[in-house]
Amino acid sequence: xxxxxxxxxxxxxxxxxxxxxxxxxxxxxxxxxxxxxxxxxxxxxxxxxxxxxxxxxxxxxxxxxxxxxxxxxxxxxxxxxxxxxxxxxxxxxxxxxxxxxxxxxxxxxxxxxxxxxxxxxxxxxxxxxxxxxxxxxxx
Length: 139
Prior knowledge:
Elements: H1 2-11, H2 15-62, E1 72-78, E2 81-90, E3 101-111, E4 119-127, H3 130-138
Antiparallel strand pairs: 1-2, 2-3, 3-4
């Protein structure tokens, strides 16, 4: 009979082995959940930054089309963002009257109330004098 009890004990897991297995499983699941929640936060942040980038690009593309370019600072709000656009003239040496000229444009997009911008873009926009184009077309 003692031989039979010994073989029964060796056939299953002890309580310590079972607890150790659950502890290892718990640690693995916690690590998995932490990684998944970090990925979700990262994806949400990326989506937020992409929306800010889209707004900045749109404002830069509209500049000079929707309203004339003039040196200075303009501000606005769109959705959850506020933006500031600075425009200043770029005049290289040798540019005469009627020649194309350019303006530097820099835009900062930040969440409303945030001190730091999420996106900052800088571009040089070339502008051709439309009266000169018309004059060349008529000749």
